[in-house]
Design brief:
It contains 4 helices and 25 strands. With about 375 residues, the protein is mostly beta strands. The protein has 2 domains: about 150 residues, Jelly Rolls (Sandwich); about 140 residues, no CATH class. Strand 9 and strand 10 form a beta hairpin. The protein is elongated, with a radius of gyration of 33 Å.
């Protein structure tokens, strides 16, 4: 095997980064611990680009532990764990608005719907117990909207007379929800509400039902005759099937379809392993390289997000990545020429001097 090396440019450089060695971490998680997915690393030896060259970068390899949750958020700050409901109590003729909060975690299709059923049928001891404390504030499973104070307050006891039943259709990957007790009280799941964020997990569109996204839980003895049914396939990944690596080295190299503009995305990392495993990604096609406009690299800022630019929380785990820096020749800028000069200053071609000879017969011939 032979190689042809280009000695006119410096050799490529690879920057190996580990979040454990970060010099600056910008944010903390809900428990006050440093997030490892957004950091800045200061280099002791800077990479300097010669004036006649340019630098381009690409992702060399990345290793990420799959320890981030598919259901994320607390009672106030949410990603996809809130469900807003209206409940009409026939005995008091009062309609109350409730907010159900799923504890952050990694759920399967079965554990998610079972958690929903457990909250809706939970005892006073269960509902009054906080599942997490965020910034010193206890987080609970159920809240009600206080019209007097215009704020969500903790619901300490179960207000529902209905007993919900649920079923997962494994063939079509859809949920069925119904109640088996009350025919007079009315529970409405508000999937069209702006504060409901778990539509994809339930497999319900925001305009389901009559176009408002409001679905009334029907009475049924077995759930076969009538039930709320998902109107699309449930997605336990919440439509997050890849991670996005963003760096401070580039600013406008990749188009972001969410914003419609170019952003600092260096690479998209597919999630091709199960929860609890490690994502090893080495780009098989590294022809996509982004230009670095900085003449010197002294620090690197890194951010790991989902497709909606929301920061990923690896729950205390560190991750590693390698960025390759290549040096390329700059394109020469052509000096513009006046078209008139090109016409008026044309140099005529020189005539060739030809030699001739006289033959014995007196004829003149050209010598070539």
């Amino acid at each position: 095997m032979s190689y042809i090396t280009d000695t006119s440019t410096p050799a490529s450089k690879v920057i190996h980064l580990d979040s454990a060695h970060a010099h600056v971490r910008y944010l903390k998680d809900e428990e006050g611990n440093d997030l490892t997915t957004q950091f800045q690393y200061h280099m002791q030896e800077a990479i300097v680009c010669p004036s006649h060259l340019s630098m381009i970068c690409s992702l060399h390899t990345v290793t990420i532990p799959y320890t981030f949750y598919n259901v994320r958020g607390a009672s106030v700050k949410t990603v996809n764990n809130h469900l807003i409901m209206n409940y009409f109590n026939n005995g008091t003729s009062v309609t109350t608005k409730y907010k159900l909060v799923f504890p952050a975690g990694s759920y399967t299709a079965y554990s998610f719907i079972n958690t929903f059923q457990a909250i809706m049928t939970g005892s006073t001891e269960f509902l009054s117990r906080a599942w997490e404390t965020t910034d010193g504030v206890d987080q609970y499973h159920l809240y009600y909207w206080s019209t007097l104070h215009s704020v969500w307050l903790h619901q300490t006891s179960n207000p529902f007379a209905q007993v919900l039943q649920t079923r997962l259709d494994r063939t079509r990957l859809r949920y069925h929800v119904w109640n088996t007790v009350s025919t007079s009280d009315v529970l409405t799941l508000l999937f069209g509400d702006a504060e409901t964020t778990c539509n994809d997990l339930f497999g319900v569109r925001g305009d389901a039902g009559d176009g408002t996204g409001n679905l009334v839980v029907p009475y049924s003895t077995d759930g076969v005759s009538d039930s709320i049914t998902s109107d699309k396939v449930i997605d336990m990944n919440d439509e997050i099937h890849g991670l996005y690596l963003r760096t401070s080295l580039t600013t406008d190299g990749t188009l972001n379809s969410e914003t419609g503009t170019f952003s600092n995305i260096l690479a998209r990392i597919p999630i091709n392993v199960n929860y609890g495993s490690v994502i090893f990604h080495t780009p098989s096609n590294s022809t996509h390289k982004l230009q670095i406009t900085l003449p010197t690299i002294k620090m690197v800022g890194v951010k790991l997000t989902d497709d909606q630019n929301r920061l990923i929380d690896l729950n205390g785990m560190n991750w590693q990545l390698s960025i390759q820096i290549d040096f390329v020749k700059r394109l020469q800028t052509l000096t513009s020429i006046n078209p008139r000069l090109k016409i008026n200053n044309i140099v005529p071609p020189k005539k060739k001097n030809r030699s001739y000879s006289i033959k014995n017969n007196g004829m003149v011939s050209e010598t070539r």
